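Researcher: Please translate sequence to structure tokens.
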Amino acid sequence: MTPPANVFVRCSCGRLHWGRHGAAGLLLSDPARGVLLQRRAWWVHHGRTWALPGGALEAGETPREAAVREAREEAAVAPGTVRTLSASVVEHGDWRYTTVVASVAGRIEERVANSESAELRWVRPDEVAGFRLHRDFAAAWPGLRAQLDRALVLVVDGANVVGSRPDGWWRDRFGAAVRLRDQLASLSVTGLPDAVVGGGAGADWTWWPRVILVVEGRARGVEPIPGVEVVDAETDGDSAIVAVTAEARSRPGDHVVVATADRELKSRVTALGATTLGPATLLAELRP
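Model: Translation complete:
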């Protein structure tokens, strides 16, 4: 029999925590309304305080899955109405809590959906600290607030990244671009560590990027797949990458990273406010 997940565990820090496999919560942000907070029922751990919809991870469940599931169970937030952007982990060694940061991607009709919630409320970010917060959420809030609504956009120079590894790409450039596209799709699951992309959030952060693959020449015609957008360069690839980067930078809060080793292209995109990532570093983060 599988041990129950919804139990208290004694952490090495000396405190009791909820969740045999750890716990997670969803920090959902709507620019028009603020962030969705939950007032915990009187009878739960740290009752009557305000925090996020969340709870214990089930066996085999990822923190991202758990946060979205708990938001549905406690606040009736449909999974298809949120876009998960990033995650911050508080690591205790033998227990961890993950805050999944998300933005509204559809109509949210929140309501108290089970007995663990006493009230739900959209709160402006500058008013959150004035509420009676769960102590751990209160400690994490300043760092979380800095990342609200911030997305990572990864623009990939397909020709340069494909050409960085000797796997026979010169015999089949289209096939090589397809292989790269399929590997990039893994980032929608695994994400990219903040330490790799230089987002400035901190070592305990991970990003699920919006991935844009730019292809040119004989690699044109690669179809997009879930998790990877594809842009065909009509003339030269560098100009297309610059145009895509400029469009992505139209949301100034987002972090835009261009994966390329081309020196001139690096100069052009950094002038737009983007940062760059070497092909070898990117490839090391991709699943085979």
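Researcher: Any highlights?
Model: Residues 63-75 form the longest helix (13 residues).
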